[in-house]
Amino acid sequence: MNHRNAAARALSKILERLGESSINCTARESLGRVGQIGARPPLDVGTQGILCVRALPGATPPVLQVLGATGTFAELAKRDCLDQSDPVYLPMLQAINAQHSLYEHPNEVLYIPTQANHELVLYFTPPWPLAEVDKDLLEVFCSRIAAAFDNLHYHMQMARAQEATVVALADLAEYHDSDTGEHVLRVQRWTTRIARRMAERGDYPEELTPRFLELVGTASILHDVGKVATPDNVLFKPGQHDPAQQQVMRQHAAIGAAILQRAAQMVEGQSYLSIGAEIAGGHHEHVDGNGYPQGRRGKQIPLSARIVAVVDVFDALVNRRPYKEPWPLPTALAYIRERIGKQFDQKVVEAFLEVVAEEYPDA
């Protein structure tokens, strides 16, 4: 039996079972490669373990947040943090206090500090005592886990910063209008649900990627950000706009797209801002080419904007606006159906109607 390979596979097996979060997926991928050293086939070592990160640095006693657990410790994965009474808490605490790994078979604790000053601890129970070469190999594994955790921490911080930017822009757009705040939250919720339903239906699989589904709901709250440039006497006018005011009002789509496109250029790849720019500039376009600001038609209009086009109109119809009273739900749905192929994408409307049927089963 090759103990070095077995130790590698043991730890890989823990990470394989720890769950599907990004940190565990990335760590599992790194460890899996190292665990393939040597020529022997995989061994079923039946390893059990739990991975935690120290939360609230400086707290006494240390707070250990559970990232994942397997085997007899699987129940602990349902908790946010370990209790001091849990049998694994004390050996993990000892490793943290000592600031190094503790090898005391059958209970082993890997202490994994990271460059960003996080402290991870992995408690596991290999079926045999570890040789020195096994311990050396595990220390290599620890460095990989630490690097994976830091990379994902930085990624999540960047994502939070982007989301905070989106929220700040949306707050700015709705500064004068408290009703707009409720509107954008409804648009976010409906957009998210419709996009997910379309993915379940198999619509537009090339566009409805996991990344798109992650971003589109939050990005949709920026659909009217260009209204920051609309004069209040036009924006809040009760009743219908005259032709000149209508032209001023329509400028918000192009203005919003331009603002968000400039910001999106500072972020690599698809982001809240890039999808927000698509939505801001395209949710007033019609699939028959009779919308604004560019008169795009069909799939020339980004999918994100085609989804929000339906949601935005529906929400405007069924809720009170300065220029109108709310429409009854059946009347609003009839209007949406009648506009299929003219204003709205048929597949988007089909998914929308399925979601509405779930939301309003008696309608």
Features:
single chain; 363 residues; 5-stranded antiparallel β-sheet; 5 strands; 53% helix; alpha+beta
Provide a descriptive summary of the structure in words:
This protein has 363 residues and is α+β, with helices and mostly antiparallel strands. It has helices at residues 3-17, 22-34, 89-98, 132-173, 178-201, 210-219, 232-235, 243-264, 272-282, 303-318, 329-338, 346-359; strands at residues 49-55, 63-70, 102-104, 107-113, 119-124. It has a five-stranded antiparallel β-sheet with strand order 2-1-5-4-3, sandwiched between helices. The N and C termini lie far apart (67 Å). Mean pLDDT is 81; it is low at 13-21 and 26-46.
Radius of gyration: 27 Å
The tally of beta strands, per DSSP, is: 5
Largest sheet: 5 strands, antiparallel
Distance between the termini: 67 Å
**H and E string:** HHEEHEEEHHHHHHHHH
Strand order of the largest sheet: 2-1-5-4-3
Q: Treating each run of at least 4 consecutive H or I residues as one helix, how many helices?
A: 12
Hey, roughly how much beta strand do the residues contain?
Answer: 5-15%
pLDDT averaged residue by residue = 81
Quick one: overall form?
elongated
Q: Share of helix among residues?
A: 40-55%
**Helix/strand structural class:** alpha+beta
Low confidence ranges: 13-21, 26-46
Please give the oligomerization state of what you see.
single chain
Write a concise synopsis of the structure shown:
This protein is 53% helix and 9% strand. With 363 residues, the protein is of the alpha+beta class. α5 crosses α10 and α10 runs antiparallel to α11.
